[in-house]
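ping. complex inputs:
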Amino acid sequence: MDEIKLIEVKEDILSDNDEAARKLRDKLRRDRCFAVNLMSSPGAGKTSLLLKTIAALKEEFKIGIIEADIDSMVDAEKIRETGVTAVQLRTAGFCHLDAAMVKTGLEGLGSESFDLVFIENVGNLVCPAEFDTGAIKNAMILSVPEGDDKPLKYPLMFTRADVLLVNKIDMMELSDFDPAALKQRVQSLNPGMPTFEISAKTGRGIALWTDWIRRETKVFA
Ligand SMILES: Nc1nc2c(ncn2[C@@H]2O[C@H](COP(=O)(O)OP(=O)(O)OP(=O)(O)O)[C@@H](O)[C@H]2O)c(=O)[nH]1
Ligand SMILES: [Mg+2]
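pong. complex structure:
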């Protein structure tokens, strides 16, 4: 198996990120590449969700994965075991991805054309929400152990997301997490946002998410 491509990326503070993101999104639309920016706090289950998503969709879609972390290649190594093409971006201290970094990641995936690209953003509920990556859709994971109050504390992330996955639902019985309170808080920030309860460990609810992807890939333009 080939070595995983490790790409060092840096923030260019002089560039206009919104403009770069617009251009990148236009290119993705032209190329019919449905790119999803996946955001959450550290450990909420991004890589675990990607492994389940790849298993469910890899026969239907040509999938590429862009992993991003401040350091290490552990996530890209896990993805590579699925046989799907992955690159690892190392942000060397930066807590988020911007559009230029994602463009570099897409170039790193190579010249093949991908139907579906997942971008695992750096684990953080603050900075990733502030930077448009140029992806077609933003997906966010909140895991049960983090608590149902997170929309109150990190409203921008819940506002920017197009879909919310409530992960680690298998841990609900150990927790005082209140799904009704979460729903009310999320809907007041982002009315109508689809929200799916999932477990990336047991597989519960994963089909709701993969069906959402199937629907959205058909309608994006
Ligand atoms: N019980 C349970 N554990 C889970 C679930 N999803 C992920 N985990 C565990 O949570 C831990 C973190 O999961 P990851 O998938 O690495 O989380 P991540 O968001 O990619 O983490 P970072 O990349 O470090 O930000 C691992 O030990 C997973 O096995 C779930 O649905 N239920
Ligand atoms: Mg991860």
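Strands lie at 5-8, 34-39, 63-69, 85-90, 116-120, 137-143, 163-167, 195-197.
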